Queue: 2 jobs
Job 1
Amino acid sequence: MSLSKPRVVSHDRFARIVFGDGRHADFHWIWLRHECALDRHPSTGERTLCSSRIAPDLRAHYAWIDGDALHVRWAGERADRAASRYPLGWLREHAYAPDRDDVEPARTLAELETTLASDEALLPPDWPERLARDGALIARHPTGITGPEHTERLIDQIAAEGLAVITTHFGRIEDLRTDNTTNQNTDQLGYTDAPIDLHTDQPFLDAPPRYQLLHAIRPADEGGESLVSDAHRAARWLAQHDVETYRVLTTTPVRFHRKQKAFERLFTGPILDARSDRFQVRLSPFTMAPHRLPFAEMDAWYRAYARFVRLVEESAVRTTLRAGDVLLYDNHRMLHARTGFRGARWVRGVYFDRGAR
Amino acid sequence: MSLSKPRVVSHDRFARIVFGDGRHADFHWIWLRHECALDRHPSTGERTLCSSRIAPDLRAHYAWIDGDALHVRWAGERADRAASRYPLGWLREHAYAPDRDDVEPARTLAELETTLASDEALLPPDWPERLARDGALIARHPTGITGPEHTERLIDQIAAEGLAVITTHFGRIEDLRTDNTTNQNTDQLGYTDAPIDLHTDQPFLDAPPRYQLLHAIRPADEGGESLVSDAHRAARWLAQHDVETYRVLTTTPVRFHRKQKAFERLFTGPILDARSDRFQVRLSPFTMAPHRLPFAEMDAWYRAYARFVRLVEESAVRTTLRAGDVLLYDNHRMLHARTGFRGARWVRGVYFDRGAR
């Protein structure tokens, strides 16, 4: 037990109080505001503030510990109002989340990317570990120059670790470019210059391909950034912060319906599949069929979905792939997106999975 | 089957389409906005609008049926954008809430109140039926003059229907006035001139008294309006419109803790108790103890509670009781409130319940 000065660490929705003995407890800002002495009747001391009138995203303007009490000045509160004061002993007594662990922060771009040592290697030697640990990796080509002929070398390097190419209704290698005419089923956003929101690929299949390689051949003249975001982390965050939203996303069936010129497939299932032995996210704004939910569940569905999308958007890593760069990610765990662009952007896409299918 | 012109009825969160054969179906505005053609890629036709970017309270500026299609102009949409168009056949095909019944509208003041025929009657003859049907009734004294001595006559009239007075820690008859010194435990908001939010009485008791009579002796010089709102209706509305919120309110335990100079009681249970054989609401901002919920449930709790409070506030009936007026309500079903006031307001309160306790 280490003795040190108590301190407060401010988070978005809550404060963590670290007590003098190293133990800690988390308190939502709304909880603290609701329990404080600012809105009580002067003679009876009764609370006169209903929690329905506190903004759900309220947070402290400033919070500090002075002596044996937490003090909070609230954002948006009149300057002449006293700060709220909470004796540390009272906080200990009412701690509803003692010694809670929080989900680790999202990976940064610096953590996902690696610059290759030579033109020979197309992926870093530890790519399988990185992929398993982080869900995605970005390999930068050292000279920034490479050609489409290296896609096959990449496939060989990945196949050496037991991953086989999965051919889909887009073919074996997808040429993501606006002038694509070689692939079947080019009637989809990937072959336009439009922005594409965060999504997973092929959620309308019973078994979407597990991994995708994106091999950048030519960047756009303008725009065309790539984004990836870890849905598994977002799901764990929700399970720890808003289990109600998590429950809606793991139980509400959604219909992913893809209908193209020469292809049609429908899959019905939840956005988040978090059975104990695996995790799988399916999300795709452009292939969702009209929702068929009971009327009474529709509100909660849109609310939960919006909260999840905001979470993955906030923690997305974004970067512009240069010629030769490789983005490899786990399509069961990560969402990906690209911004709109101008020019002859060319990215090659290949799906992989373990063993035969 | 009656044949008539199809029509659309706009509600706050949804539209009801009444088809030509008299059948109907309800569609949330957010669902309609998400499914419309305004945000689709010009060449592929894919949806480019994520529902997370639609305001949850979006509604139509104007909706109408022309020929065989529903047309919607959206609030906040650019004027040069085409209206959204939904063929009625398509709406029938995708109807997720066909032939749905909605909760009836809240009672109005005119429906709750009745003016007595003479100074002799203190309650209308059908008061037991009104109380059972509406949860509350307001009886207006014809001359607007009556004295505190009539409270006992009211008690007799109510007792004749099998309801007995329940004595509480405030006594047999509560004199709600700022200069009250006769009752025990006067250290509470009821004896001040402060506003009191919608609440139920005595939620901290295992069995809160079922009915309360409020007998107005002297109105305030200014303010002091009375409010009542039907929590049973609000609960049924939630069960039909937002079952997730309903679930949180019927399952999350809350601690009602009343500690006064000479009284202390604690009750732990949900806001809404809707077991099949009964309905009971408990709600009281000023006697809620600090919440002790799992960290991951706190967000959903505040969200659900706020939604419920807004509902009961929106459907509250408000009136100023004059001298002699009587407000009688079911404390297991109705919330009541009063606004702040100035002057020597005097209301007498008596609790009743069926049989011996």
Job 2
Amino acid sequence: MEFSAEDATRSDWDFLARVVESAISNGASTINLPDTVGYTVPGKMAELIAYMREKVPNADQAVFSVHCHNDLGMAVANSISAIAAGAGQIECAVNGLGERAGNASLEEIVMALKTRKDHYRADCRVDTTQLYRTSRLVYGIIGMNPPMNKPIVGANAFAHESGIHQHGVMANKETYEIMTPESVGLTQNKMVLGKHSGRHAFEARARDLGYVLTDDEVKGFFEDFKRMCDLKKTVTDSDIEAIISSKIAAGQGLYRLARFDLQSGNKVKSTCAVQLEKEGSILEDVALGDGPVNAAFNAVDKLTGPQSRKLLDYAIHSISQGEDALGEVAVKVQDGKRRVTGRGLSVDIMEASILAYINAINKLAEMGERYDEEVSPEFGNP
Amino acid sequence: MEFSAEDATRSDWDFLARVVESAISNGASTINLPDTVGYTVPGKMAELIAYMREKVPNADQAVFSVHCHNDLGMAVANSISAIAAGAGQIECAVNGLGERAGNASLEEIVMALKTRKDHYRADCRVDTTQLYRTSRLVYGIIGMNPPMNKPIVGANAFAHESGIHQHGVMANKETYEIMTPESVGLTQNKMVLGKHSGRHAFEARARDLGYVLTDDEVKGFFEDFKRMCDLKKTVTDSDIEAIISSKIAAGQGLYRLARFDLQSGNKVKSTCAVQLEKEGSILEDVALGDGPVNAAFNAVDKLTGPQSRKLLDYAIHSISQGEDALGEVAVKVQDGKRRVTGRGLSVDIMEASILAYINAINKLAEMGERYDEEVSPEFGNP
């Protein structure tokens, strides 16, 4: 049983100690002391844990835990300093996602514990080689890219720019690398795949990247891979990860995009004709719009009505790098009280947009009338 | 004179103390002790400062400074703990940008000092109401969005999602708000501007947002604003900020987009016809491409050759929120050894792409053959 005292860091510590004592004597085996508004600082957090362990007579019968928010950018340091003071549990989140500025970032805490084991003398059983892939998957689900300077998982996290550093790393890795890219599961592009690569090479690479796939999945992903090879000169590991993780997150559905034809420009209204496949038959219609995305979505609306749907948000970002980068679109669509996120991925940003919208509509169709309450992502309390 | 000892936190402290003493006696008035690889932890950083102030006989003749990297997510906490131990200078960066996982984030340090003045008893002369705008401008220049959960400046930083928190904030702001949105310069949308707003209303709003504009600039931005009103139902503060800060960063140039006409789809090659204005005359051509962006760029290439240019990177993201969100495209283009970033902004993602590419070409044209060495953004050492 876990007992959690919201806003513990700003509470009266003496009163809090009496509450904690009572919680433990009533059966709480974990005592969570959240820094609900991200107000505390590392030294204070350590003091709080030490205070409780000293003042609460039955403190040894429970594990102390912290739940830190990142409003002033110190959630990771606050969590780690709690561990140094004797906390045995940290509540954190992949990529630090959470209410407002978020919670302590799981991957940063894990790597700080591993890298500074000499100092903290604490450990956890997280397999660090899964951190990179897990982070990408979670960012993918919410339709966001890792910030390039995000510790551990950002594109620049292991990139040494300055000449003197590069020289140092080449001479002796430990000069500037306190942890290796491999330790967090970042693989190098050892083999470049392209249009002449066969299914076995693709399957082997996916396995190297950590994906355990069924035969049907391999077949489906390989088709996507071949299509991508027609559009990109070389397909990198991050492209393959993007295909697989986006498909895993997106699933299948009622409608499938067969064809679209777009006419657009800055002096004309945009026009988009869309063909959708639905249960074996082809639906087709055309629509005008303000801009190409609006025209395409209007055409999809005509084919999939009735029109109680509302597009709440449209976000686009590029996933891989270079001239033929993959674009990923995330749309948030509301229908009555149901709210879903759809995602689409393509080297063609218009196709990515249409795929995302269809994905959202498929999710709504699958849901049926199941939800009569608003469905929205709930980020952590306390 | 500032003396900086690279990788100070991992050095032999005793030896370091002797080096620092010598630097001060030779005239150094600032002693910088960088945590070059982001290895240290708050307690240790405080110890280092205290150690130097105690062991270096002439320590009182210099200001101690730290320069923290964020590899383990603790740059802000490490910097702040140095202040608590007597450091008088912090080297940090807007948005925490810097090599690898970056440096300590200026806005987080400033707000931590202000918010926890009771604890740190230190201050700085930064005008906090400029933090939000400065952050957006810097993100804009590098073509990046603030991560939604970035402390202080992210879209969610002040958004209370959970019901109990919202109730608390309504009852008493201080319950969950340790700092106000206004204190970092986040203004509320008090007045919505639209197609019936005049130039004076626009100018007043820009002034409220902190932009001091010349008459010519007001005229130019107002035209962009009116065009945006044709495409968006309402124009928000963040739209206006996006228009102005993107224009300020992008400048003017040799080529201007007059018109484009695009045909695209998933079963046909894309075609794009482009008209550019160059010194009063109109150039026009059409090109095929793999996808709409590629076709448009090929057409621009035909009009602006010779073709030693290479597109290194293409990145797109949405700036404002909602159905008619602004898209911003950043392209990195190389010509010989010159390398530039171009940016384009529009509610039409195709137009944003073409504008970004033209912006890059204009920058190259303006440069001429001035640079024979590679120009690339240099992020901070040590």
